[in-house]
Structure formats: structure tokens, C-alpha cells
Amino acid sequence: MSKTHKLFKLFINTLKLSAFTFGGGYVILSLMENTFVNKLGWINKEEMLDMTAIAQSSPGAVAINASISVGYKLFGILGAVISTLGTVIPPLVIISLISFFYEAFISNKYIALVLKGMQAGVAALIMSVVIDMIKEVIVGKSFLIYVIALSSFALNVFLNVNIIYIILTLIITGLLYSFIERRNHAS
């Protein structure tokens, strides 16, 4: 398969994913993994997990960040541009069309019901992504990971500790842990 054909396939796949995915970036992440890891085999699971982490931690829309990461990994800057175009075109067209018919959409009870139904589907897809990420990241890890995750959750939800303080504490803890581990392996 030629590079041009692969670039076209990248564009078509990102276009389809973006056009038929409702619920934002977290939903598209699982579909991207299914497409580029499972169906096409262009990326392995570990690389996709890394790209997901980068997409989530980078400023901007998660779907666009993920498509940039996938495109760049596969074909460099040209791949990033092609996959970004494929991801951006559908929402741009859909939102432009909706803006012309905004009054009709906002007052139509059937459209409101369809959107409510879509919310339930989106919630299920997001839960699927969360469960998949937990399986990839936490399963097989030490008990300490579970304690840290549950403690962070409890501190934020029950004791109202600001999430920024929790994240900063975990970053510092992770850096210290990595430093100690490297030191132990170097000895």
C-alpha cells in the first residue's frame, strides 16, 4: 500500500470517526483505538495509551489532540495535518448547519428527546473508555496504586481538597519515587 493511499485511509478514518461520534474526545479515543490498533494494526495498544495520555494532558480538544498524535506517529507532520483535517471537518460542517436552523432545533421536542437519548449513550461510551483505561493502567500494578487512587478520590470528594493540590502532591511523589528507583537500580 502506497503512502498516498495510507494518508487517504487515515483521512477517511478520522473523518468517519469524527462524523459519527457523539460525546466528545473521550468517546472518540476508544473508537480511535479500535480503528488504529485493532482493525488497521498501525499502532500498538501501549502507544495508543501513551497518545491518549498526551491528548488528555495537552491544552485543547482531546479529539483533535489525539488525532494529531496518531497522524504524527504514523506519517509525521503531513499525517498530523491530514488527520486533523479529517477530525475538524465534520463538526465544522454540522455546527454550521445547526446554526442556520437553531430556532427550529431548540424548540422541537423530538430533537430534544433524541439528544436526551444520545446523552445516555455517550455516558455509556465514556464509562467504557474509563474501564478500558483502568484495565490498561492499573490492572497488574501494586496495591499502592489502588490506595493512591482511592485516597485521591476521597480527599477530593469527601474532604473537598482542591484537585490541583492532589495532582501536585502526586507529581512530586511520583518524581521522588522514580528518583529513588533509578538510584536503587544504578547501585
Automatic annotation (TrEMBL):
InterPro entries: CHR_Transporter, Chromate_transpt. GO terms for molecular function: chromate transmembrane transporter activity. The chain crosses the membrane at residues 7-29, 75-98, 110-131, 138-157, 163-180. Keywords: Cell membrane, Membrane, Transmembrane, Transmembrane helix. The keyword Membrane applies. It is a multi-pass membrane protein. This is Chromate transporter.
